[in-house]
Amino acid sequence: MRTSEIAKRFQHYFENQGHLVLPSASLISPNPTTLFTIAGMVPFIPYLLGEQTPPSRRVTSNQKCVRTLDIDEVGKTTRHGTFFQMVGNFSFGDYFKAEAIHYAWDLLTTPQSKGGLGFDPETLWVTTYTDDDEARSLWANEGMDPEHMEILGMEDNFWTTGGPGPGGPCSEIYVDRGPKYGKEGGPSADDNRYIEIWDLVFENYAVDNVKSKTDLHIVGELEHKNIDTGAGLERMAYLLQGKENIYETDEIYPVIEAAEKVSGHQYGEDQESDVRFRVVADHVRSALMIMSDGVRPSNVGRGYVLRRLLRRTVRSMRMLGVNDPVLPTLLPVSKDAMAASYPELNDTFHDVSEAAYGEEDAFRRTLEKGTTILDTAVKKARKSEDSEISGKDAFTLHDTYGFPIELTREMAEEQGVKVDEKGFRELMDEQKSRARADALKKRHNVDVSVYDDFKKTLAEPIEFLGYHDHSSRSSVIGIFVEGQGGVESIEGPANVEIVLDRTPFYAEQGGQQADEGEMISDDGAVLEVDDVQKPIKDLTVHSCRLTEGTLKVGDHVNATIDEERRHGLARSHTATHMLHKALRGVLGEQATQRGSLVAPDYLHFDFQWPQAMSAEEIDKVEERVVERACNDLPVKMEEMDYKDALDLGAMHLFGEKYGDRVRVVTIGEDAWSRELCGGTHLDATGKVGEFVITSESSVGSGVRRIEAFMGRKAYEYNHSQHKTVSALADDLKARPEELRERVCTLEAKVREADQKLNALYESQLEATVPGLVEQAQAEADAPVALAAANVGHFGSFDALRKTVMDVRAKLGDGKPAVVALCGVNETGKPMVAVATNDGARQAGLKAGDLVRVASKVLGGGGGGKPDFAQGGGADASKVDEALKALRQAVSQG
């Protein structure tokens, strides 16, 4: 039975039971907090909550869904998929538990010849909620074997929307696939043997204070009870079609078949290839369906998810040996497979395919540009102690060549190295902070005009107390909720934006990050303040998590900032002014500020300068800042007229807009530094503590960046550096000041030794050529002349490649010939090189295929052209085993 037929039978059955058949809603979720429609019930939430009147009290649908949280698991298992379909039936205050259970049993067990789905009743199992005796009785009355019922708790069998609203117990239906798929004992014993196909939710309670699946408050019975069910169409399909998994069903497998033809590989021949086939089949279908609903590739939101799906498809096909464009072949196949269920795909396919093919072309160019850079980063990583690509290199691949971190990670893993994702994230955060004000408008679902309208209602401007006070007694004058705008009250848990009449919280501006802290209302509402912004001028908005209680406009709160964080920010901001002054003193007056980030005990400072600073210049700047910190100069902050501040010679940023009244920060009695600044500061430079510059780099044409730590972070950095130097001095039996000279001497000796060793390896390899030729020619009756050997340590790969080519040349073209040499390079990694002559290739023996066979045994990967290929792995102990596998592959043709 085709998947489309299963869906039609489901909907036809419920239509005959008085249900209105509704078409699938768009994959683009109307919920601003969710990118895609992730479940069949999502379009009906307003009806379940009683917010809207449904078109009928009974409805049924086949809903398109996309979930991408497990995208990295797709293909590795036979269950994870991104696009899927949920058929379901819904009752909004009409029928309830008895009818829902009867309908499910009747549809599932009625023979296919009579319009049902034809599942064997003996294979069906159900789970029910702890105290739902009624459901268990109803199932038994329908004919369910009592031995096939399991009782589970709230974690598994109780449903809510995740917030205040309806909720209730549920009953999940499973199919037993039989003993060959696992042990008996029901769903809790083996979820590979017992497959869930349908979930019936009985919404008979009102719930609130939902903190987790098991931590919630049941208010009482609902006046109008609901039924919400969802059945996985793909799961039903593979069970009814007699397949092993969702990838082998009629709507997915055609893409695998097309990928087989293009790649020359066969699905089922090895686990590694099967994973790639499944990734391709899933992602092509998901991309098709997402694009058909109007999404196009981009770097944000849904567009980024789509871009990742398309790129993973292209990459997976490349790993299957296909370097030519693949989407023009695969996408039409997926469209044809899905058109029976969604005929509208034919109408949108022209625009969808053009966008998809353009994305593939662009990504192929990205791969060509970035792969060389990635290979360089991999080589550098292999020489590092932890075999890790640095966060900086990963960021460069992302920022300059368009390599998302997921792609860098995947490609690095294939070559046996890791990626410093933490370092990458830190650099990404820094980049985001520079554009945070702009991103604010995109991040909030409330239009900026709502803030403007709200501000017009204020009788008095919001008072900022944070220069002197770290807490305040304040009134809530505004509450904003994503997607709703201003509201009068909100019940936790919830994410909210709060406006106070007076606040000690510093809103992010001037490079200084925002304060964090908490608010507690007189009525017990608790809010964690995560961010503070000014979406429009003079309006301070606190982004909070209301963790408990209810907050209303007009409530009084005690607002308190995180004092430790504030002190770290003040330390960094005062140090930023000191750094700016020291830079101008060392480099000249033209070294002016172009941007900054002020974080707790960390700063980066961008300034105009045409070239990299010398080590001596960096040392001088650091020395001046440390000297002023030791002098413990007073820091004075005062407000004055803008013109008076300029008359005093206060530094200000050209292009910045200042009001009539400005805040001036002066360091030192003699005004060693004086700048216009609205940030928070220390009252003396001595409180900066330790200060250390950690890097100086370029961030654009004519703009440099200095990064520095102060306070505790500076101590930790210096302490780490000191320990490293001391350990090296001990290891090399030298004084710290002698280390540089000692290391240079050792490097020279190592280079000389490497040159001699490589020359020795090369001569040894060259000497093996006659023996390898003789080995291949020894078996005159063999259909293929095979020279395969473990050469041990071979030095550079160029020498290994040259030896393989020399042996192939001496064997000539008289008969099919394969040359395969495997050994260990200078870093201790096993490598394999394979060359084939024309006769071998005509016999179907391709170097790339043979290399993959050997590399898989070595725990790695590889590839290349049919005439020559190379690969490697991580386990040098398996070189002989890898050659054995390669010989078997040659003998089997």
Structure at a glance:
The protein is of the alpha+beta class and 893 residues long. The protein is built from 25 helices and 34 strands.
Tell me what the structure shows.
The chain is α+β, with helices and mostly antiparallel strands and 893 residues long. The protein contains 25 helices and 34 strands. Strands 1, 2, 3, 4, 5, 6, 7, 8 and 9 form a 9-stranded mixed beta sheet that branches. The protein has a 6-stranded antiparallel barrel with strand order 13-16-20-19-18-22. Strand 8 and strand 9 (217-232) form a beta hairpin. Helix 8 crosses helix 10, helix 8 (271-292) packs across helix 11 (345-383) and helix 10 (327-338) crosses helix 11 (345-383). The longest helix is centred in the C-terminal third of the chain and has 40 residues, at 739-778. The protein starts with a helix and ends with a helix. Residues 434-446 have low confidence and may be disordered.
User: Helix fraction?
Assistant: 40-55%
What gross morphology would you assign?
A: flat
Q: What would you report as the Rg, rounded to the nearest angstrom?
A: 34 Å
The percentage of residues in β strands lies in: 25-35%
Helix count equals 25
The tally of strands reads 34
Ends distance? 39 Å
Q: Mean of the pLDDT scores?
A: 88
Largest sheet: number of strands, sense, barrel closure: 9 strands, mixed
Oligomer: single chain
